[in-house]
Amino acid sequence: MNQPVPIPSTTAPARIGQGTAVEQSRAAAEVQAAVVVAQQCPRNIQAAVAEMRESCKQQGLAERAFFRYSRGGSTVTGASVHLARELARVWGNVQYGLVEMRRDDDYGQSEMQAFAWDVQTNSRNSSTFIVPHRRDTKSGTKQLTDMRDIYENNANNGARRVREAIFAILPPWFVEEAKELCNQTLRDGGGKPLAQRIADAIKTFEGIGVTADRIENRLDRPSTKWTEHDVAQLIVIYKSIQRGEVTAEEEFPAPRVSTDELTGGKADKPAAVPSE
Question: Disordered: where is this region (predicted)?
Answer without folding.
Answer: 248-276
